[in-house]
Structure prediction request, 249 residues.
Amino acid sequence: MSDHAVEEHWASSPWPLLLSVGILFLVPLPFAFYFVYSKPMFAVLSFGMGVPLVLLSIGGWIREAVEETEWHLSVSAMPFFIISEAFVFVAFFAAYWATRLTAPSWPPAGTPAHMPLLVPIIMTITLISSSATFYLAETKLESGDRNGFVKWLVVTIILGVAFLAMSANEWSHLFKAGFDFKTNIYSTSFYSLTGFHASHVFVGVCIFLAVLIKALSGKISESMVKSGGIFWHFVVVISLFVLSQVYFW
Prediction:
């Protein structure tokens, strides 16, 4: 009876729907307003609505996660979510490939003569390292070493935050160099792919923060840890494709 009640609670959670609406206002609508309809004010308004909705949804979802003992269906449901996300990334890559292969010359005019390569490599190594540290955290949890689990989880979170900080810094330098969203088709594709990937890293860090909060309160949900790990390893794999396509091809 209690299991049924928990499943029913998650099924009636408002946060997944609200998060979907927030993402709609945060990503596709601003891009459509800005690039298709040339309405920058509408793009800003849409983005301004999407940010608080996404943050509110993530906060509410984390609060529910902290209050619950287990995510009963999370591990079995996560592969379906990963598949759906993979198709979204494939759509982004397919659009980039079509643009790249049909362009008369590449990179198009307006692209900096020397795109940064060292920083993206360091960023990718950082993210790969975070996958390894989370594996160590899971190993510690399986062996019953909760302190070791918390230690390696904190290291993973730090690496994820470092990746986001380096991404923001790189975008800032590129903007100053005149390489912004509307410089050319390459810049639009570049920020779409790297930004979409960075948003997944941000979500992964939020999941790990929820796990950390539970762990510090003496409660560790193994299903939550496993589902978060599946998502994180997926994000790390995607980073290799992002690196190889937008920087080295």
